[in-house]
Each structure stands twice: as C-alpha cells, then as structure tokens.
Amino acid sequence: MSNLLIVDDEPSMRQLLTLVFGREGHSVRASENGRQALAALRVEPADLIVSDVKMPDMDGISLLRAARDVQPDVAVIMMTAFATVETAREAFKLGADDFIQKPFDVEELKLIVAKALERQALVKENRAFRRAQRERGSLGNIIGRSDRMQAVYQMIETVAEVQSTVLVTGDSGTGKELVARAIHDLSPRAEKPFISVNCGAFTETLLESELFGYTKGSFTGATANRKGLFEAANKGTIFLDEIGEMSPAMQVKLLRVLQERKVRPVGAHDEAEVDTRVIAATNRDLAAMVKDGTFREDLFYRISVIPIELPPLRDRREDIADLVQHFIRKYGEQTGRVLGISEKALQLLENYSWQGNVRELENTIERAVALERTDEIQPERLPEHITNYDPGRVAEAFDLPDGGINLTAFLDQLEKTYVMEALRRSGGNQTQAAELLELSVRSLRHLLDKHGIRSLSAHMRDEKRTTDSPPRRRATDPFPRRRAEDESGMAASAGDDSSTG
To answer: Taking Cα atoms as reference points, which of 200, 225, 194 lies closest to residue 212?
Structure first.
C-alpha cells in the first residue's frame, strides 16, 4: 500500500481520484490547493503526488518545486486541462515523473500511477541496499567500517544525486577511481558511460586529441574524424585522474569545456555540446600548486566544487582486517580455493605502515594467496619488509635532534635522495624510475627540475650504455677481420712473454 496525495481545486476531481485509488488499496489524502498540500506533506510524507497545474493560491508547478525541498524523492504526476509545451517542459525539468492532460481516461491514469510507484519502490529498495552496505562496511568495491570511511560513504551517496563536479584527493593507492565509479553507479547517469583517463599518461598534444577528439587531416596520422572522450561520455561521467599533471595550456582548454559545456575537436571550427559530469582526482596538493603558479586558480575552484578526501590506510587500521578478508576471497575465487589467515599474519599486516595504501595491501594478499599451500595464510608468505617491520626501530631512525630540525630542507633532501636512487637503479630510464617511485613521468621530471638534476638522468644512461655495450669496431677500418687477427696474435705474444719472464 502506498500513500497518495491528490491536489485539485475541483471537489469532484478530488472525490473521483480518492475513490479510484482507495479501491486500488492505497491510502489517499486530498488537498484543494498547493499550499494546503505542502502543509500536509510536512506532517506526513507521501509516496506520490497527483496534482493539477492550474490552482489558486499555489499552482502545481510551484507545489512541485516546493515539494522537492520538503521531500526530494516524492514522485509527482501533473494534470492539466491547459497543456502547453512550455508547461510540460518546466514540469519535467523540475522532476515530474509524468504529465497527463484533462480530460483523461481513468485506466490510463491508473497505469501511469502504477509505473510511478514502481519506480519509487526501486528507489527505496536501492537506498535501503546502500544503507545495508554502508552498515556492513562497504560500498561497491570500497571496504571499511571506520568512522572516516563511513563519512566517505555518506558523501558519495549525497553527491551522487547532484551533478556538481567532484575532486577526489588522497595518497596514491587509496582508491580514488573506486570512489569515482561508486558516485557514477549511484547517480542518475549510471546507465550511461563511465570513462577514465589518466592525465599524466599523455603528452599535452595527445591528451587534447584524446579528450576532445580530432578531425581528419588535423595532424599526421589523423586519417578520419574521431570523437573525444568527453563526447564518448556524453550523459555519463568522465574521470580525470592525476589532473595535477595537466599542462597549463590544457588547463585553459579544460576550464573552457567546464564553463561552456562544449568541446572543439583538434582541427575543427565547430563545437559540439556535451553533458558530461566531471570527477577529477589527484594525489598532489592543488592548493599549493595554485600558490606557486603551476595550477590555475579558476580551474581549481571549478573542479573542487565538492571535495572528497580519502584517508591513507595507516590512518584507518581498523579497516585492514576487512580489506584482507575481501582480497583473500577475491583471489581465492580465482584459484577455486577457500583460505583463511593466521592470527600472527593478520597482526603483522595490521602493524605495518602501508605507504602504498590499499593497492600495496591488495598486491601483498594476491602474492600470499598464490604462494600459500595450507588453508591459512602464514607469516612466511608475507614479504620480509612486512615480517621484519618494527615501528619502534623506524621511529628511532628518525629521532628528532635536541636542537630541532629544518623539516622542509630535510624532506627536500630525502626526496632528492630517493629520486637519485631510483634513477641509479633504472640506469637513467625515467619511465622505470617513475614506476619505482609510483609517480607519473611528468611528476618525476618536475622533481628533476626542482632539484636541478635533470642532466643526471642522461649521464646515468650514458654510463649504463658504456658499461653494457661491447667495444665497437671503427667504421672506417677497411680490414676489420685482419686487424682483429693481428691484435689477437699480439695478445698471444704478450701472453707468452709474460709467462716466461
């Protein structure tokens, strides 16, 4: 049984609809104008409002607008004997579920009401499901019962209903894309595309053509027109990961798209309108980048209408056990195994610092599941840096001197040291060094310039090339084989002389 509110200034219409829907088994109330109906709605919520448009005191459109403020999820069907395209458009814009013209067929109205109530039931069921998920400590693939994660879940559910731009921040590996997907999946755009793009993985030129598309002949290799990701995600959501890596020129172009809701493909003169929701993410401090001039202030405020900050795993250790069980099930199902985890192994995981956050924990569990041969993950299946981790020893290594410390200078030097070590291990290969530091190549180059060591990369590459490569023959030598034989003979003679001396 559903609660219906009938609103019409004609007593005969109120009586008719009250009788019709009462016989259908619904609880029906009736009001003679919008103001009276709004007062009734404040006293007792309704599942559905069936309202006339033309009424004295407060008309149906005004009631629809006000009812959304009192009860945002109430279903509304509008009736009128003076239907116009403008009235219908305004009603639907405000969220009316349907619109019917008087005089109408009662059976048709009953069918419209039944469909609206069915949609309303699905909304309530979805909300109850999400509430149950949150109470169990999960939302989609996001796991956690901690207070901070409960706050994140609440924010996700809230912003999913609106169309505002969202900025998700947090350390690398905290699950920013999972948050973006959850917002999309819970939004009215859920049936439309969700497209993710890593802004740090493209050069400026490639990123522009990837986001906005291009026309045939606009550059070498452009053999046909191609839509960009903004158009591909029309009516859906585009997730701009690592937006802090975007060049200043691209920031200007993105800002224009967000303001105008139009994109211009590379090489095109015309623009295309897009209705694409933007969710951005970064592990960098955009506010600090605004201050030092590397990120546009107007773009920062445009993308951070609703900020969501994800806590690092070390700040929500109470969630580690749930995450461990989730990943054990995930990778156990792939191998057809049912595994547990020993108390000692779980304790080691809960004590570890997790600089790589949830991503590092997932990789650790995937490895342990693959290696374990018993029915429980044992400490021996965990990496040594986890089993040997001692929080006390780590704290002693960073003991604060009695005279204090210049923290900024210390952290800069620590940063520079790790960058140089990553370059050394990768033989100067910037892509590999960036992977070791879990950075984009663009971020690594920014650090190289910051510390004035960009030339070090080329030097290490040359040094590695010299070490790894065998001596080359001189291209101008006309008799390479004869020279090699002569040198071999001379070496043999020298060897004979030394052995007899």
So the answer is: 225
Q: What are the CB-based long-range contacts (under 8 Å, 24+) for 92-101?
A: 94/61, 94/64, 94/65, 94/68, 95/64, 95/68, 96/64
Instruction: Convert the pLDDT of each residue in 4-22 to its tens digit.
Output: 999 999 999 999 999 999 9
3-class secondary-structure state, position 411: helix
Report whether the peptide linkage leading into residue 56 is cis, meaning its omega lies within 30 degrees of zero. no
Q: How many C-beta atoms surround the C-beta of residue 85 within 10 A?
A: 7
Q: What is the DSSP letter of 471?
A: P
Tell me the three state secondary structure of residue 48. Answer: strand
Q: Residue 254 corresponds to which tokens in the numbers above?
A: 């993105």
Residue 201 DSSP symbol = G
Q: Which long-range contacts (CB under 8 A, 24 or more apart) does 148-151 make?
A: 148/311, 148/315, 148/316, 149/311, 149/316, 149/319
Residue pLDDT, tens place only, 155-195: 998 998 888 999 999 999 999 999 999 999 888 888 899 99
In order of start, what are the domains of the chain with their CATH numbers?
3-127 (3.40.50.2300), 152-220+227-310 (3.40.50.300), 314-395 (1.10.8.60), 407-468 (1.10.10)
Instruction: Check the CA dihedral 469-470-476-481 and report its sign.
Output: negative
Cβ–Cβ < 8 Å for 39, 67: no
Cβ(59)–Cβ(90) under 8 Å? no
Q: Could you tell me if 461 and 427 are in contact, meaning their C-beta atoms sit under 8 angstroms apart?
A: yes
